[in-house]
Amino acid sequence: MIPMTLNKIAQVVGANMYDVRDQRALVTAPAAVDSREVVPGGLFAATVGTRVDGHDYAAGAIAAGAVAALTLRPAGAPALVVQDVQLALGLLARHLLEHISPTVIGLTGSVGKTTTKDLLAQILERHAATVATDRSFNNELGLPLTVLRADAATRYLVLEMGAGRKGDLTYLTGIAPPQVGLVLNVGTAHLERMGTGPADVAEAKGELVEALPADGFALLNADDPYVLGMAGRTRAQILLYGRSPQARVRAEDVRMGDRARTAFELVTPSGRAPVELDLIGEHQVSNALAAAAVATALGLDATEIADGLNAARRRSAGRLEITERPDGITIVNDAYNANPESMRAGLRAAKALAGTRRTVAVLGAMGQQADTSRARHTEIGRLVADLRFDALITVGTGDPLAMAEAAKSPNLGVAVHTAEDAAQALKLATALLEPGDVVFIKASSEIGLGACARALAGA
Question: Most exposed among 61, 150, 152, 247, judged by the fewest C-beta atoms under 10 Å?
């Protein structure tokens, strides 16, 4: 955040000031929507959710060091009152970017955004000051909060951009116009709100490349036909990545290493270099290549990119997060969120990690699958059986029960159990697990299996 007076911020966002003693007081630190994350010199944004009203925490945020609160109404504390807090944060973020000059990198896709963002940040920050999206703060609130962490020293601004519906990426790129745009893939995440099929998802995701300038770069996945189809929607220079021979940034000699870690030969226009990822699952190759494509567009050579990938570690919780218990049980917490693509990738990664060890899956519903939901859950149940998991616990009624039924293959011997909720799933898993087991846990975030995974990891 570049230092700005309260008076200047009020002018930028169109705010009226209440209970402000000094209009020239400087905001010198980023904004926060959680009063527990306020830092001295920052700005507290009071948002209203279904369960929590941020206005109730404004005074506490000021006591914690915030200079003022951005609010919808007077809140008994120094406040900049606006009609729309979310819109105001976007205006402030756009104003900040007009006064600093980082290279803005936007990335989107149905799966893999957060892991790719974490890998890319770890490549770039070895070379220059880099600010990247925290956790999965990739929506209309999270993106401006990320931008407001940047300052005059920031060279690279890596922005994960989520799209729940058409128009979302147009809005986000309006706040932070990217010079570099990366599209990972087109899947079925948010299908319920985007349309009837992957073509509708592709239409929404392609808004990112439409926002790129003629002197920018569009990094497109050569292995995904829907992403390749976006080439005609951008003025920017196109760089293809993937495992396809036509990709200029690609992987050769892909192999599974120790404990399901993947290794490959990275090939870029600048040369070749060996990569050994510290992340489980072969699907991580695509995420690594996506990050490598961005770094290539920014001028890094193959060796520099490989060094960054080799040193990279998992940064975000709940995404193939591995905990080894003293009794030899391995917990694979992938419960941050779920869709069919990430569910398949996670199940395969956990099975590869297990090798000959006993495997247990604890799976809940995958949200926003529209009319295809029951069929998608049935497919996952069949995959659990085909991969020869030893046991499956499904969580919830409806579609998870379809998953359970599909896994009951008489020839493959999956022991299938059903739980009504996460608490019951925890009890079932605790009773079922044996020393040496590998347990994989995944569902859409609203199911609450993250707490189940953490409890099992701490047992």
Answer: 152
